[in-house]
Amino acid sequence: MIEFAIDESARRKIEATRELGEKEFRPAGLEADRNGAPIPVGHAFFDRCIERGEGRTRWRGLNPSPGDASKPQSLVTTALQAEELAYWDRGVINSTPGPGLPEGNVLAMGTDEQKEKYLGPFLEPDRPRWACFAMTEPSAGSDAAAIKTTARKDGEGWILNGAKCFIGGASRADWILVQATLDASKGREAQRAFFVEQGTEGLGGFKIERKMGLKAYESTSFTLDDVRVPAENLLGGEARYERKAGFKAALQTFNAGRPIIGANAVGMARAALDEAIRFARDHDLLKRDRVRDRIETMARKVRKSRFICLRAVWLADQQRTNIVEASMAKAMAAQIAQEATALGLELVGSVGGRGDHLIEKLYRDVKAMDIVEGTGQIQRMIIARKLVGLPR
Question: What is the DSSP track for 36-49?
């Protein structure tokens, strides 16, 4: 039996998220969109995040006290929170301080020493801190197995060379978990991940890309030019790597993250739906059959996409395989969110063309949901291959 129920504590968290989204997230997102630039590092918004206890790691330290050994939050709860946050502004979610996307990899594969060094500062951060995961490259986006950034053993350490692009928060991150290959001809099995600390010689060329939407957070390109890192910066150490283990670790992050991206898309679609209904009511459009039909179509599809996302994270909570469901959630929710914002923009008409209506912003923002963590096309390939029994 599938059970999506959440406890009272989780319900309170989501209610608090709703209040915070209205008060903090949407205003910050609208400000960044008007400015056409990410929220700057010194912005008071980030200080308030730290004051509220945000930006912390799920890791509880090497010797947690009994009170710290609480049960991890379910992915169902995480997905519902992600939906609510994205309802208010998805770009702001990605801008907030914290260990971010690589945290799961470090928790799953990192040594105790690596967790202490790289997650320890996020236990009780003294200031806004960031970390990021660098997989995407100019010639390897959806095909993550085709990365060309190289790692070469040199004495007791490693030398990294290559280029990464569209990496969230790279220029402000304390450290970057860089995916590289020991031998590009060997494909996935030769991939490894390395901690590269900000300020390391050879790490540079940071360029914040201009984007059509989600402007609140930075998407950054950078280069690695003979970047030397010590042996202990290899995630998990060489002994942890079996055949394709490095690539599998990255995929595990994506399989857990794709339904969350789907939940983000659901939240954005909900926001477009609510704004469309508000506009229709304010302009006395609800008497029209065509308008009601558009609204009903949006509401039905949004609900459908929410259920597939919840099923995918529920399977993950049960530690059951969710490869197909994760890809379905990502592909379907992103597509439906694009349809919802397009229908909303059609409904508001010329008002949406002024560039100052929330639905117009959502229309630009939501396109990224079909791109990040594997495009919709790639998700459909994964689903099809799995259904007919082909290898990934």
Answer: TSPPPTT-HHHHHH
Torsion of CA 258, 263, 267, 273, to 10 degrees: 100
Q: Which residue has the tokens 């490095």?
A: 246
Domains of the chain: 245-388 (1.20.140.10)
The pLDDT assigned to 145 comes to: 77
Q: What confidence tens digit (pLDDT) does each residue in 280-319 have? A: 999 999 999 999 998 999 999 999 999 999 999 999 888 8
E-only strand ranges, 47-97: none
- C-alpha 143/C-alpha 153 separation (Å) is 25
Structure letter (DSSP) for residue 129: -
The per-residue pLDDT of the chain, averaged, comes to 90
Buried b (16+ CB within 10 A) or exposed e, 222-239: bbbeebebeeebbbbeee
Catalytic residue check, 373: yes
> Nearest CA to 194 among 223, 233, 153?
233
Q: Are 327 and 383 in contact (CB under 8 A)?
A: yes
Say if residues 367 and 212 touch (Cβ distance below 8 Å).
yes
Give Cα separations from 314 to 10, 84, 155, 329 (angstroms).
Answer: 15, 18, 45, 12
* 93, two tokens: 């979610």
Identify the band that residue 143 occupies on the pLDDT scale cut at 50, 70 and 90: confident
Amino acid letter at 366? V
Burial of 62 (0-12, 13-18, 19+ CB in 10 A): exposed
